[in-house]
Amino acid sequence: MGLFTPALHRQRHQFVIDFVKRKKPKKVLDLGCCECVLLKQLKFHREIELLVGLDIDGVQVKKKMHGLAPISTDYLQPSYDQLRIELYQGSVTEKDARLRGFDLVTSIELIEHLTLADVELFSEVVFGYLTPEAVIVSTPNSDFNPFLPGLVGFRHSDHKFEWTRAEFKSWAMKVCLQYGYEVELTGVGQAPPGQQERVGFCSQIGVFHRLGGKERYNMFDEDAEDVFSYTLLYSIIYPSLHDNNILRRVLMCEVVYWAEKLKRRWIAEETGERDDTYDLCQAKGEGGECFRASERHVDTEETQTAACGAEMKTLVDQEKGDGELFWTHSQPDSEKWRRRVSVPLAVLWCCCPKVSVLSGSVSNLRLLLMDEPGVKLSQDGSAVLLNHQEQDLDDDEEEHRADFEDSGYAEARQCPPSAEPAEDWEANV
Ligand code: SAH
């Protein structure tokens, strides 16, 4: 209709999003989710741990449901947030125990598609059985219809009714009395200047809150049998650092990244060889100005690595005694003597904030890395071993590397530490 800016459907969804931002519900259910437009916006609000959509029309739901899947950053830089998304086919007039006990249920432009008898069932199912803490119901306000140019009859051919504000209020009050809720009536879509009082909002909205807090949930049907009447169409669990496998992969990615960096700096300092990142940092120091914005992070990282390098040296100097402990000959019998650089876990843990946050303690770090094929630990498990020359891999390691890359997490290995975008990491190698 072009009467509203932003468009009316956007304003309705924004109303829900604003509510979510304020109240931070953990479990949200969208009734009549259709093509999942609202759910796709809600999934970015990561206080939500369970996001569920229900619609009677499975074909509509299936059309775009894959847009709810995690994107690559969700895998490459997972957080501790947890999110599960589920979509069901079923009718709001039927009960299903899986949808009980939510913090928020939304019903946006749904009830007017139901017969009045089904609206009664809807009320009973939503307010009497699902008993969420809050419910947002939106429906057309027929008082506003004269302002909609060219409208004859209802706003949509499938609408069974369109209520005046008085009718909506009377239904809402009845629900409150019957099921123990209170309601605030509001809306979106402003009337023309001077008309707001008289006609109200284009879409009327009731925001219901359950009285009596959480205890009430248990009062209903405590002994009732669980009913499962909906069909699960889609279910996805977002990657989270609460998943131990994911935590280990991210940790390994960080450890490999920082260990290599420390190694390069240490070698540069030991041999006086040029280290590109080191030069970059030096030159920057002299020139005063940063290079490109994408290289700016190098400065912080270099300072950090420099500090770590110094610490590593101290540790090594203290330990080496014979001057050989830092450099190990891994295959004394073989003709090919290879040198390895050993980066103590204690150094990695102290120097890399993300490593210490993820692992908690050095001993935990050791445990988490122990069975990781992508990281080689010293025999006593106190240090990460790296080949002095990257190309100097033995067969064993080639195999490990292949396993690792086959694990589907190869991309993650290339990932930068969480604070930096991918180009930065690339600029740095
Ligand atoms: N909430 C969406 C779509 C509203 S259109 C939005 O804000 O854009 C109404 C939706 O309700 C349709 O997708 C329709 O399939 C669904 N619907 C109609 N009757 C239903 C019922 N009994 N149970 C569940 N969904 C229903």
Automatic annotation (TrEMBL):
Q: Which UniProt keywords apply?
A: Magnesium, Metal-binding, Methyltransferase, RNA-binding, RNA-mediated gene silencing, S-adenosyl-L-methionine, Transferase
**Enzyme class, UniProt record, top EC level:** transferase
- Name the InterPro entries for this protein: Hen1, SAM-dependent_MTases_sf
Positions of the UniProt region annotated as Disordered:
387-429
As recorded in UniProt, its EC number(s) are 2.1.1.386
Q: Which GO terms describe its molecular function?
A: metal ion binding; RNA binding; small RNA 2'-O-methyltransferase activity
A GO BP term here is:
RNA methylation
Q: Tell me yes or no: is S-adenosyl-L-methionine among this UniProt entry's keywords.
A: yes
Keyword S-adenosyl-L-methionine among UniProt keywords:
yes
Q: What catalytic activity does the UniProt entry give for this protein?
A: small RNA 3'-end nucleotide + S-adenosyl-L-methionine = small RNA 3'-end 2'-O-methylnucleotide + S-adenosyl-L-homocysteine + H(+)
| Cofactors required | Mg(2+)
Matches recorded under PANTHER family: HEN1, SMALL RNA 2'-O-METHYLTRANSFERASE
* Family according to the record: Belongs to the methyltransferase superfamily. HEN1 family.
Q: What is this protein called?
A: Small RNA 2'-O-methyltransferase
